[in-house]
C-alpha cells in the first residue's frame, strides 16, 4: 500500500504539469489579455473582451498575435505599451514565463492579482469561507439524505414508496439548481410572498455584535436557501447510485446463503451487504466534495450575493487576471489529485480485500 501511495504521489507531478501547460497555452492565445484590458480602460472602451467580439473592430491598430498580450493600441505611446508589458511580465517568451510561474507555485507563491492590488492567496482565503460553507453543508446533506433513501428504495424495490420517491427524484434532478434558487427567493426571501430568510451574504451586517449562539444561528439562517437549492439537484444521482449498488449486492449468492443460515434481514443488510454496496458511494466522498466546492456554485453565489470562489474565478476569467486564474487552477487541481488518492485509500480502508498495488503489478 505504501509503494502504491508513493507511485501515485509521483504521478501527480507530471499530471499537474500537463494540466498547467494546457491551460497556460490556451489562455495565452485567447483574445482580450491583461494588456488589452488596460488599453481598453485607457481608451475609454471599458472592456477589451467585448471590444474584440466585433463591437470595437474599428479601434484595432497595432497587432501582436504571438501570445495575445496586446491587440489594440490605437493612439497610445508604444513606450507605454512596452512599460505595461514589462510590468505584467509579457516582455519574456512564453516558456520563460511558464517556468518562472511554476517555480513560484512550487513554493506556493501565487503572486498578486493584476487588477485587485492584492495577493492571490489572500483573495482565495477571503472567499474560501463561502465556498467551504456551501461545499461542506451541501455534501453532508446530500449524503445524509441519499444513503438512507437509496437503501430503503433498494429494500422496497418496486413498491409504492419506490415509485413515488423516484418521481420526486426525477423532478428534483430535472430542475436546474439556479432555477430552484430563484423559486426559493420568490417564495421565501421577499420576492413576492414571504420574507422569512435573508437574501444577501454569509452573515448579517451586525454579526460581530451578536452573542456566539446568535452568530451560529444567523450563519445557519443565511445558509438555508443556497444550500437547499444545491442539495435538490445533488441528491438524485447519489440516491440512485446507492439503490443500484444495494440491489446488485442483495441479489448475490452470499446474501442468499446468509439468509439460509437464519440470519435476519437487518443482519444481512448491515452485516454483509452494507460494506460491499457502500464502497463506491463512500469512497467517492472526496471527489463529490471537490465537485460541490469548486464547480457549479457560480449562479448560486450570484443569486444569493455570496462572494465565493466561483464568483472570483468567473471575474478573473472575464478580466484575464492571469495570477488569479492560474493560481486557483494550480491549487485546486493539486487538491483534486490528492483527494483522488484519498478516495483510493478509502477504498482499501473500507474493504481491505482491495489491493491496487497487486492490480497494477
Descriptive notes:
It is a single chain. The protein is an all-alpha fold. It is built from 17 helices and no strands.
SSE map:
Blueprint: H1 2-28, H2 34-42, H3 48-55, H4 78-88, H5 94-106, H6 120-155, H7 160-174, H8 177-188, H9 212-250, H10 253-260, H11 265-277, H12 279-283, H13 285-294, H14 298-303, H15 309-319, H16 322-350, H17 356-360
Keywords:
single chain, 361 residues, mainly alpha, 17 helices
Could you report the average pLDDT, rounded to the nearest whole number?
79
The SSE order reads HHHHHHHHHHHHHHHHH
User: So what's the oligomer here?
Assistant: single chain
Rg for CA atoms: 26 Å
Biggest sheet features: none
Overall body shape: globular
State the distance separating the first and last CA atoms.
12 Å
Strand residue percentage: under 5%
* Low-confidence sequence ranges: 48-66, 68-73
Give me the number of helical elements: 17
Brief summary:
This protein is mostly helical and 361 residues long. It has 17 helices and no strands.
